[in-house]
Amino acid sequence: MASTLVRRVNAFWFRDLKKLHPVPPSCTQLWFARNPAVDRYIKKAFEPDLIRLKQQLLQELEGNAEKGEYSQLKETPEGALALVLLQSVFQRRMYRVDNPNDMRRVLSISPAIPDRSETIGLELSEHTRMLAWYAIQEDYEEDMNPVMASFFTLPLIWAESRTSIDTAIMKIERLLMFSSFCYRDYFTGLLEYARAHDAVIKKYNRYPSRNPDLPRRNTPEEDIYFSLFQPHVKAYEAECKRTKPV
Q1: 94, 205 contact by CB (below 8 A)
Q2: Cys-Cys link to 79, which of 73, 163, 172, 219 (CB 3.0-4.6 A)?
Q3: Hey, CA dihedral for 138, 139, 145, 151, is it positive or negative?
């Protein structure tokens, strides 16, 4: 399945993206809007890849295997992008079906190894972040549509790290500056998104929304944050119950 992953990711995630054309609403709706039906499709279509990838990476982390077919994908820009999307965006979307903020599922590798799932999950999250970092440092965007390359910044934005977010913001600013004018609105919106996350990290040094699932104890300031954040979670849970799976 690894051999077809790049083709399947591109056919699904970037099917409406055209070179030197503004990013259409159908793309931004697919990428950023909360849609339980799409989340369920992602889980059905890509969870087998994610499970195999995690099992392979686990063997590599423990030194029990050489680089497998999934790991070899990172040697090309589009292969690296497919891996980053699978381990970050798609993973969040497929487990948001069950719980809109279920970070424990995102951090787990398999229910079959619960004793180590959180530790391994953290290692794999770091692996995804470093893969995205590597792609940015190697200027992989020079070999692909810059809008596609912008997804390398998301694991860095989502990392609880000022350095990572700063790197993501600088890359987005560069893409905004040097890419075609037709992408200006897209990159301006992405830059606002990154800066909003940066503001949370600067204030709390972490994302309070992850506290219940890691688990972590809230600070008094974070209790205020939750009083504002929780209504949005409940609204999405209600939406999930109303929406039939595809």
Answers
A1: no
A2: 73
A3: positive
